[in-house]
UniProtKB/TrEMBL annotation:
It comes from the Bacteria. The keyword RNA-binding does not apply. Residues 1-18 form the signal peptide. Keywords: Signal. Residues 25-225 form the Copper-binding protein MbnP-like domain. This is Copper-binding protein MbnP-like domain-containing protein.
Length: 254
């Protein structure tokens, strides 16, 4: 019995150790949210979009997934199982640490804004961490009625928006929609590829940090010029496509 117990312990130890690849390290994607040249400050920050409309921001959240890194030799490494929820209200969340990155030098980073269809429809037991739909509290990032995640949530106020029932001039952009299993809803997943001016080299002793800026000014003025006066509330995938098309314009490497 002692021999059997020892063997079982040895097997468990080997399995545990195998999770850590000795030839892999980490890379940090550090996100900074801004509005043009101004830092994003929730509630109190005063901004003006490209249409000349004044606005404030009370909430900014977005999902990052399906990260790929391109090596200097042109090959790519994918990290499909790592998901991150970037929240302006949580400074720690704005540092996405990519695990198990093979040692080497990387010249570009690619990621998706949103959560892919396969993971969106997977069993609840397989959606943990930032994908746990019960973990958001009042700041929900999951559409229970639409069975999918809100890829980007932007909320705030603007004097150009009509008063709501609570007497507030509030805008709400809740952008989601992964296409549905039969393509019955809009597919608002968008991919971003950013070349790095300087290669990020991952070694046993070095964990590089890639600074990425998300500019809300570009969200309002990307492929399409958005006006809060004309479009102040979005709660459906179909209505959100015009905003999703502006996602790639938001991001740049610092």
């Amino acid at each position: 019995m002692r021999y059997l117990a020892f063997c079982l312990l040895a097997v468990v130890s080997l399995v545990s150790c195998s999770k850590d690849d000795p030839t892999a390290g980490k890379l940090t994607l550090a996100f900074t949210n801004k509005v043009g040249s101004q830092p994003l400050v929730l509630e109190t920050g005063q901004y003006t979009n490209a249409a000349g409309e004044a606005f404030t921001v009370s909430t900014l959240n977005y999902f990052i997934s399906n990260i790929r890194l391109k090596k200097d030799d042109g090959s790519t490494v994918s990290f499909p199982g790592q998901y991150f929820l970037i929240r302006q209200a949580d400074s720690l969340s704005r540092k996405a640490i990519v695990e198990q990155v093979p040692f080497g030098s990387y010249s570009s980073v690619t990621f998706t804004i949103g959560v892919d269809s396969a993971r969106s429809v997977s069993p609840v037991s397989e959606r943990k961490g930032v994908l746990d739909e019960a973990s958001y509290g009042d700041d929900s990032m999951y559409w229970a009625w639409n069975t999918g995640y809100v890829f980007l949530k932007l909320e705030g106020t603007s004097p150009v928006v009509d008063l709501n029932s609570a007497g507030q001039r509030k805008y709400m952009y809740h952008i989601g929609g992964f296409g549905g299993m039969t393509g019955t809803t809009a597919n608002n997943l968008r991919q971003v590829t950013l070349p790095l001016a300087k290669a990020a080299t991952v070694t046993a002793s070095a964990t590089p940090s890639v600074g990425i800026t998300a500019d809300l000014q570009k969200l309002f003025n990307g492929k399409t010029l958005l006006k809060l006066k004309d479009l102040s509330t979005i709660h459906s995938p179909a209505a959100g496509t015009v905003v999703a098309d502006n996602f790639p314009s938001m991001f740049s490497v610092q």
